[in-house]
Amino acid sequence: MPTIRTFLVRPSIPAPLKPLEELARNLWWCWNHGAIDLFMRLDRDLWDQCDHGPLKMLARASQAQLEVAAQDEGFLSQLEGVHKSFRAYMDGAATSWFARHAQAGAPAAGAKLPAEAWPQSRIAYFSAEFGLTESVPVYSGGLGVLAGDHIKSASDLGLPLVGVSLLYREAFHQYLNADGWQQDIHPETDLATLPVTLLRDAKGNPIKVRCELPGRPLWVQSWRLDVGRVPLILLDVDLPENSAEDRKIDDRLYGGDIEMRLQQEILLGIGGMRVLHALGLAPAVCHMNEGHSAFLALERTRMLQREMGLNFREAAELSAAGNVFTTHTPVPAGNDRFQPDLMERYFEPFWRELGLTRQEFLALGREDATSDSESFCMTVLALKLAARSNAVAKLHATVSRRMWRRVYPGAPDHEVPVAAITNGVHQRSYLSSDMRRLFDRYLGPRWITDPDEPATWERVMRIPAEELWRTHERRRDETVAFARARLRSQLERRGGARRDIDAAAEVLDPRALTFGFARRFATYKRASMVLRDPARLARLVGNPQRPVQFIFAGKAHQKDEPGKEIIRKLVHLAAQPEFRNRIVFVEDYDINVARMLVQGVDVWMNTPARPYEASGTSGMKAVVNGAIHASILDGWWAEAYEPDLGWAVGNGEEYADRDVGDRIESEALYHLLETEIVPLFYDRGKDGLPRGWIDMMKESIRKLAPVFNTHRMVREYFERSYGPSGKQMHRLAAERGARARALAAYRARVAAEWPRVTVRRVEPASRDVLVGQPLHVTAAVSLGGLSPADVSVELFHGPVDVHGNMVDGVAAPMKSVGRGPDEAFVFDGEIASSASGWQGFGVRVLPRHEDLASPFGTVPVCWG
Predict the structure, then answer these.
(1) Same domain assignment for residues 369 and 282
(2) In the prediction, which pLDDT does 12 show?
(3) Could you tell me if 433 and 387 lie in one domain?
(4) 234, 166 in Cβ contact below 8 A?
(5) Are residues 268 and 337 in the same domain?
(6) Is 181 part of a structural domain of the chain?
(7) Residue 795 in 3-state DSSP?
(8) Does a structural domain hold residue 737?
(9) Which of 41, 304, 389, 796 has the most crowded CB, counting CB atoms within 10 A?
(10) Packing angle of the helix pair 142-157, 710-717 (nearest 10 deg)
């Protein structure tokens, strides 16, 4: 076969249409309806065929089409308006929230100031996936969509943030065979259709960095994807310098075996840090979105050792000060773990360069640092090398603290240092154009610029009931039409009978109460809960006066056979005569399918087994579109639910026996449907409006929209994590890391002396006090070679239950008042007795240092 030489043919864009190319190369378009309308106007059918990818559409558009558009005054006028909006947005960093509300002198995104000009001048946000739009397939599920929403809001707010991920070459698509069994296909992505730019040096050569794999280098190049004002750097190893096997490392998201997972995480964490430095984008703060990127903390430590002449402990203090970690997984099996021998094969040269022994290195990823056999956990590594860690909902934080308490020996569960920053959604990315126009008319522009301002959403109550309902009904019409079209194409693809294909045009009723359920088909998410009693379900969907219908969508993980079986059973049930027109499964769930469902269903249903849903953001997207949420009290709904906003399935119970829980909660769901949800929807006045339902829609939007959005979430990250982390990093780095050195020395001294720290005596002044009368307590504490200034001695107190266990204890400081006759230090403190009943207390000793991010984790808590 002759040698094939390739060349690229680009569309010849007429001069008047040149701004289209600029718009197509920045994902700003995907959350701006004016830009989307512009591309759709060029060719609606081609837009859909190209998976809503502007570059792909421009490449496929005929020259004749482009020439016609270039002569169309209406199109050119619309193009001019959209392009002006885009340029104003890109040039508006100086007036963004960050510029207005962050510290004076802080550079906004895109400003030409060096990184060292301000401690928080650059935040690097690492995630294994980013769900931005369906035409850029570098995401899998909720984690990626959350990351995509995070950087969209960071762009809107003007944060100086850069994203880091991998450029996956193969997407994950789903189709069902004739038996309803999920089939996985992985088409290769054509980079020419993605708005990515290969990053090059001043001479035009691709910028490459080197990582180390066992016995060989791994060369990495990078691509830039612009997301509004935020650059997303995508790492790529498909290079001729790498072996054929190594070039496949980033083929598929979460693909391959456990060793390939380790290779991907080395690429993301270590390769990502090296690429940022090679690009001149060294960050002050690194945010690890889940543990996949936790190796960045090790690489950052190694870099600081070299740059500042620090030892590992000193550099780790400095690195950790600027590291932020978010955990998303409340299931132990969902946290990546690698066996010690695999870690040794990949990291022995690395830990030697760090100056660590094998045991010291492996201890960084172990809950029990003294274990010789425990596997190496990425979540543990992130917790130990990040000064600030958080979960993604209040309940999830409680679960996470319980999961990881062994990392912080002696700490009460509620004091384990994992905070809660509840997830949100980037509302404009999922809001229908109909609802957007309604909000523009009645809420004004601040719902866009300040979506977390409650006063703005109070104006939802001004929207006339008739207008809100007709708008929602139009959206339901479009969702039903979408589901019908997808079902028809699914049946055609799998060779369905002609009568079934023709009947697809009549499934679902545009006026029936419509439920949506779309998410990953993991067993704990319990997609089949509403299907548990087919006879009862048939009565619900078959009621001619009050019909009910369900639209399902979702993928099972490629290796999740039980999840695939749930889909198969669902599809078989939907094919039965009594359900054929009332239950539809939409294949190949992606951002577009999610958008179409959340925009038009009446109820968004979520039925996870509590407490395994970390947050769950799909319901937030539905709420802002006017859908009402019905869910188990798990994830975000556990903190959002109020009786006038939606429905709770159960009362937040947790069941040791999963089958028992499934049976009880499915019964609760059916009862809710029959006695509350269906009657409320069909309770109509003479005008045909369900007034009670509309009132709940308004209350839901009014109260939930200003809270569960990523503008609020990103601001919270900045105020609670990024800002303090950047300042602390700057503080510890001053004078070539003087404070980092001192902090590391303090930790070493405390660790050496801690075995000699004991609480010798505890003497309460009384065992019977009146309400309002304080209890005085004296404690004698031996501190070994430490002084009272090195520690905090505290009274930990609270009510006790019938078993004698303290409930929700709180700490009160004790003061050093000198030495006792036995040379122990004496500490005095008081407990305020504000309520009657049995109370308990204990005395504990913790390390104390002004630069210590948390007193827990350095040494075990010393309890008296």
Answers:
(1) yes
(2) 86
(3) no
(4) yes
(5) yes
(6) no
(7) strand
(8) no
(9) 389
(10) 80
In this structure, are 584 and 694 located in the same domain? Answer: yes
CATH number at residue 852: 2.60.40
Same domain, 329 and 446: no
Q: Which residue carries 């050093």 as its tokens? A: 816
Cis peptide bond N-terminal to 611, omega within 30: yes
Which residues of the chain are under the pLDDT cut of 50? Answer: 104-120
Our count of domains for the chain comes to: 4
How far is it, in rounded angstroms, from Cα 322 to Cα 288? 11
For the beta carbon of residue 353, count every other beta carbon within 10 angstroms: 14
Residue range(s) defining the domain that contains residue 25: 15-90
Burial per residue of 681-708, b for 16 or more beta-carbon CB atoms within 10 angstroms, e otherwise? bbeeeeeebbeebbebbbbbbbbbbbbb
Q: How far apart are CA 207 and CA 202, in angstroms?
A: 10
pLDDT value for 114: 37
Residue 626, both tokens: 């006017």
Q: What are phi and psi of 84, to 5 degrees?
A: -65, -40
In our burial notation (b when 16+ CB lie closer than 10 A, e otherwise), range 286-309 reads bbbbbbbbbbbbbbbbbbbbeeee
DSSP state of 754: G
pTM of the model: 0.95
Measured CA distances, 50 to 39, 245, 251 (Å): 11, 31, 22
Of 620, 601, 579, 608, nearest to 515 by C-alpha is 601
The residue length of the chain stands at: 864
pLDDT tens digits, one per residue of 129-183: 999 999 999 999 899 999 999 999 999 999 999 999 999 999 889 989 988 999 9
- What CATH number does the domain containing 600 carry? 3.40.50.2000
How far is C-alpha 750 from the geometric centre of its chain's CA atoms?
A: 36
- Sorted by sequence, the CB contacts under 8 Å of residue 182 that are 6+ apart come out as 174, 175, 176, 555, 556, 564, 567, 568
CA–CA gap between residue 710 and residue 427 (Å, rounded): 8
Rounded to an integer, what distance in angstroms lies between the CA atom of residue 382 and that of residue 787?
Answer: 31
pLDDT at 8: 61
Q: Decide if 394 is inside a domain.
A: yes
Unique residue bearing structure tokens 């995508």: 234
Q: Are 129 and 253 in contact (CB under 8 A)?
A: yes
* Alpha helix stretches (DSSP H) within 201-294: 258-266, 272-278
Radius of gyration of the chain (CA): 29
- Which DSSP category does 2 fall into? P
Cα gap 720→555, rounded to integer Å: 35
Q: What are phi and psi of 498, to 5 degrees?
A: -60, -40
Here the tokens at position 451 are 């979506």
Same domain, 275 and 329: yes
Look at the block and give the residue holding tokens 């007795």.
833
Secondary element (H or E) of residue 761: strand 758-764
Give the C-alpha separation, 238 to 242, whole Å.
7
Nearest to 202 by CA among 282, 270, 278, 271: 278
542 touches 578 (CB < 8 A):
yes
C-alpha dihedral (351, 336, 386, 220), degrees to nearest 10: 60
Look at strands 376-377 and 285-289 and give their pairing: unpaired
Measured from the Cβ of residue 155, the count of other Cβ atoms closer than 10 Å reads 29
Contact 98, 159 (CB under 8 A): yes
Q: Which residues contact 758 (CB under 8 A, 6 or more apart)?
A: 781, 782, 862
Residue 728: how many other CB atoms lie within 10 Å: 22
Q: Which amino acid is at 222?
A: S
Q: Are 235 and 337 members of one domain?
A: yes
Amino acid present at 770: L
By the 8 A CB rule, do 527 and 607 touch?
yes
Q: HEC states along 346-369?
A: HHHHHHHHHCCCHHHHHHCCCCCC
CB 529 within 8 A of CB 661: no
Same domain, 247 and 375: yes
Q: What share of the chain is helix, strand, coil (3-state, %, to 5)?
A: 45, 20, 35
Among the listed residues 94, 66, 95, 64, the one whose alpha carbon sits nearest the alpha carbon of residue 79: 66
